[in-house]
């Protein structure tokens, strides 16, 4: 059973603003992504579709976008396995009015963190610029996520066993 | 698959429509499948047609479901980027077209595929 965590939504202050002396701040990093021209929302979602944190600009519904993640990611990984070509680096869903970009976030140990950065864009024309900027910005998002891992463990960890399989002792 | 009569004509026509795309630079495979994941025709090698069709259909179903909730319009296509390849799935009315292409050649191949969609759709409609 999936428990939807109360997400931390950024966006109430100036985009990218960080408290003085604050360490890596996931909401701040996501707000920075909103400063990239064409990005209308940015969020971090667990592989199970649970919204961890998000920053929303002019459009989008972060929770609804998050619901896209588990099934799209599952099929993407299956197709990656079919091609035997390693990890999925991006999945792009191009809708009529806006593209949605899903980018698996790297973990601290160079593997996957089990989380995905989800960005909605204003237009297909923004894709090239956004992809270019993401190369430098997403590692900071991944690092900020790792810094708060005890609060939000890997999406594929900590799954409760069904009652009938729990150890009675 | 019955390759005689009307079905045989359809298979031949479909293959002819897909061939220029399959022979373009970097294209590893091109496939037409039903939206519920059954492969109808594939030109390419080294891939399991049934798995490709099933997962491409699943991916498009996810996008279609999200499109209904997000009010972003219909999904135009879904692209999965891998280190060396891109897999692109285009929805048709009751079918889909899946394209596996090398990363370097993805843009021209996707443009070519978009140009072929109307003809493939027409062929599928005519044979229905």
Concise structural overview:
The complex is a heterodimer of chains A (169) and B (128). Chain A has helices at 26-34, 62-67, 69-83, 127-147, and strands at residues 8-10, 39-46, 51-56, 90-95, 99-106, 112-121. Chain A is α+β, with helices and mostly antiparallel strands.
Task: Give a verbal description of the structure.
- The complex is a heterodimer of chains A (169) and B (128).
- With 169 residues, chain A is α+β, with helices and mostly antiparallel strands.
- Chain A has 4 helices and 6 strands.
- Chain A is 30% helix and 24% strand.
- The longest helix of chain A has 21 residues, at 127-147.
- Chain A is globular.
- Chain B is α+β, with helices and mostly antiparallel strands and 128 residues long.
- Chain B contains 3 helices and 5 strands; from the N terminus they run αββαβββα.
- Chain B has a 5-stranded antiparallel β-sheet, sandwiched between helices.
- In chain B, a hairpin with a 3-residue loop joins strand 3 (75-81) and strand 4.
- In chain B, helix 1 (5-22) runs antiparallel to helix 3.
- Strand 4 (90-95) of chain A pairs antiparallel with strand 3 of chain B, so a sheet runs across the interface.
Strand and helix layout:
The complex is a heterodimer of chains A (169) and B (128).
Chain A: E1 8-10, H1 26-34, E2 39-46, E3 51-56, H2 62-67, H3 69-83, E4 90-95, E5 99-106, E6 112-121, H4 127-147
Parallel strand pairs in A: 1-3
Antiparallel strand pairs in A: 2-3, 2-6, 4-5, 5-6
Chain B: H1 5-22, E1 27-34, E2 39-44, H2 49-70, E3 75-81, E4 85-91, E5 95-102, H3 106-127
Antiparallel strand pairs in B: 1-2, 1-5, 3-4, 4-5
Span between termini of chain B: 15 Å
The secondary-structure class of chain A comes to: alpha+beta
Largest sheet of chain B: 5 strands, antiparallel
Shape of chain B: globular
The helical percent of chain B reads 40-55%
Q: Segments of chain B where pLDDT lies below 50 for 5+ residues? A: none
Q: Greatest interface and its residue counts?
A: A-B, 31 and 33 residues
Measured by DSSP, the beta-strand proportion of chain A falls in: 15-25%
Strand order of the largest sheet of chain A: 1-3-2-6-5-4
Mean pLDDT of chain A: 76
